[in-house]
Amino acid sequence: MPQKNLSFLHIKNSYIAGNGVFSKKNILKGKRICFLEGKRYSLKEMINIVNEGKEDPADPLGIDEELYLDLDELFRTINHSCDPNAFIRGKNELVALRNITKGEELTYDYSTTMNDNEEKIKKAGHELWTCKCNCKSSLCRGVIDQFKTLPKERQKFYIRNRFMPDFMLKMFTVSEQY
Ligand SMILES: [Zn+2]
Predict the structure, then answer these.
(1) Rounded to the nearest whole angstrom, what is the distance from the C-alpha of residue 4 to the centroid of ligand 1?
(2) 3-class DSSP state of 13
(3) pLDDT truncated to tens, each residue of the chain (178 aa)?
(4) What is the 11 CA–ligand 1 centroid distance (Å)?
(5) Residue 40 is part of a domain; what is its CATH number?
(6) Number of separate domains in the chain
């Protein structure tokens, strides 16, 4: 069932990259913004549709181990930031990480959803997806890459505050170092 009341989200030109999604209202820290929706694919299926040229490797959102969403256009348009104002809770719930002011662009840190199966992806003839980052924040890492490549302090920030989806929390809190 499509979500109601998403009219406060609008797409326009972004200072980060291409188009972005902006909020027409203030959103308090901790409040749900929306659910990120799209068609579900396993890693294997996703590799196939990327191979067929039907999917840009930049677009799938990891929602569980080897499970992805091919996001619908509105949700796909939300940009990455290394210092985001939103994060993903549970599987695909976008939540305000801090108070968001009317007119602000919505962003989340794509790396908090990225712990891809390198072995299977390489076996299929692909490299892990990375992208240059132009988020212009003071915390900009210059690249969007797997969560494990983030500075340890930044990893701790996301894990301790639970500013990441459940499957990522599960994968990264098994280790004592956090
Ligand atoms: Zn950045």
Answers:
(1) 31
(2) strand
(3) 668 789 999 999 998 879 999 999 999 999 999 999 999 999 999 999 888 888 887 788 999 999 999 999 999 999 999 999 999 999 999 999 999 999 999 999 999 999 999 999 999 888 888 999 999 999 999 999 999 999 999 999 999 999 999 999 999 987 656 5
(4) 20
(5) 2.170.270.10
(6) 1
